[in-house]
């Protein structure tokens, strides 16, 4: 029989050995969102408290982005991607999909239907060649997105209610609820003039997603454009206030209509821009003017303009000229299990800030 001292040592040793195993599978029950650097493309990975995963967009073709996406998924402990959502058929959104599916099993792919012709009506078009890997990739199944579609996700005991919903796709929007119809709509201020239609017309067809976790709400509108964005918030605000706004269209001025931003009234914006794409003057000014906004994150330092269009350097994941972290770095958000707060970290700069969820 062991002496008490030896027993204690044994127990401690066993504890040390057991602890990592005991907790390896136990969840902290946060809802995690990773913005993966696709240098001006879209690639946002959501991991639910029960480790289900949703990848919204897949970056561009050519290995760079898919390698980063798969690395982020594996670092998050995933062995497969449960749901892959494609907002629209531009290369910086669907381009990496087949490469991702080659590298890690993909369950369900959700899109608005693969276009038969060039989605931007361009002639001549190499779209048939570009879409081939996506059309032929091996995945569990394929589903069509429609407005109001709820993406089935498991509920996790002891956490806030989780809901991922497609609120618009192909210029079709969710219907207002009876309560929304009955509610007095607060004025969102001056209605900005329309802009010429986007030449890359498929942007206008973007699928738009709203993720909620208790009172916490996150908006990902793909590349939805200026003339269509207001339909989400006016004359009836179909989406309502959100906590975190992923800037539409990488922060280009063809999107980010001030009416949308005022209707969403975000606390935080995360811009999936590239060094020379997005964060344009109008979108930047709109965000700066948004009084609810407490912080503005950028995937990349904006290089083609004066530095006054860049946010706090601590909130920029990738910098290209100032000697900081160069590229491939993520931004991560963890929403607490009760949905009442969320922490956004920029591992490359060491920034970590916690925000209170806004009561809706
Ligand atoms: Zn895009």
Write up what this structure looks like.
The protein is α/β, with parallel strands linked by helices. It has a single domain (27-119, 127-356), classed as 4-Layer Sandwich (Metallo-beta-lactamase, Chain A), CATH 3.60.15. It is built from 8 helices and 17 strands. Strands 6-5-4-3-2-1-15-16-17 form a 9-stranded mixed beta sheet, with helices on one face. The protein has an 8-stranded mixed beta sheet with strand order 8-7-9-10-11-12-13-14, with no helix packed on it. A hairpin with a 2-residue loop joins strand 7 (162-169) and strand 8. Helix 2 (64-75) packs across helix 4. The radius of gyration is 21 Å and the shape is globular. Residues 42, 90, 92-93, 223, 250 line the site of zinc ion.
At a glance:
By secondary structure, the chain is an alpha/beta fold. It is 21% helix and 23% strand. It contains eight helices and 17 strands.
Per CATH, what is the topology?
A: Metallo-beta-lactamase, Chain A
CATH class category label = Alpha Beta
Q: Helical amount among residues, as a percent range?
A: 10-25%
Estimated share of beta-strand residues: 15-25%
Sequence of strands across the biggest β-sheet: 6-5-4-3-2-1-15-16-17
Morphology call: globular
* Termini gap: 62 Å
Q: Could you give the order of the helices and strands?
A: HEEEHEHHEHEEEHEEEHEHEEEEE
What is the name of the CATH architecture?
4-Layer Sandwich
């Amino acid at each position: 029989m062991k002496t008490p001292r030896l027993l204690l040592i044994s127990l401690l040793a066993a504890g040390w050995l057991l602890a990592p195993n005991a907790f390896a599978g136990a969840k902290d029950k946060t809802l995690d969102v990773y913005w993966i650097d696709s240098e001006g493309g879209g690639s946002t990975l959501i991991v639910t408290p029960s480790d289900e995963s949703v990848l919204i967009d897949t970056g561009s073709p050519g290995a760079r982005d898919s390698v980063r996406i798969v690395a982020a998924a594996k670092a998050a402990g995933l062995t497969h991607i449960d749901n892959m959502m494609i907002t629209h058929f531009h290369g910086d959104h669907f381009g990496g999909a087949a490469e991702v599916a080659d590298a890690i099993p993909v369950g369900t792919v959700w899109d608005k239907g693969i276009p038969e012709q060039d989605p931007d009506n361009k002639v001549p078009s190499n779209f048939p060649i570009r879409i081939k890997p996506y059309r032929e990739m091996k995945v569990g199944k394929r589903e069509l997105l429609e407005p109001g579609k709820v993406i089935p996700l498991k509920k996790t005991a002891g956490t806030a209610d989780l809901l991922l919903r497609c609120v618009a796709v192909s210029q079709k929007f969710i219907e207002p609820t009876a309560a929304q119809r009955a509610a007095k709509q607060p004025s969102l201020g001056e209605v900005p003039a329309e802009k010429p239609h986007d030449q890359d017309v498929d942007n206008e067809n973007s699928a738009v997603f709203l993720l909620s976790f208790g009172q916490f709400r996150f908006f990902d509108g793909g590349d939805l454009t200026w003339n269509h964005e207001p339909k989400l918030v006016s004359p009836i605000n179909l989406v309502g206030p959100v906590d975190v706004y992923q800037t539409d269209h990488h922060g280009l001025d063809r999107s980010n209509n001030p009416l949308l931003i005022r209707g969403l009234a975000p606390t935080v914006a995360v811009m999936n821009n590239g060094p020379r794409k997005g964060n344009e003057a109008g979108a930047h000014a709109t965000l700066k003017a948004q009084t609810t906004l407490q912080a503005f994150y950028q995937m990349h330092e904006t290089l083609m303009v004066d530095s006054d269009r860049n946010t706090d350097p601590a909130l920029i994941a990738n910098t290209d000229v100032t000697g900081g972290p160069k590229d491939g770095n993520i931004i991560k958000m963890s929403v607490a299990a009760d949905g009442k707060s969320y922490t956004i970290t920029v591992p490359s700069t060491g920034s970590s800030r916690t925000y209170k969820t806004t009561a809706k």
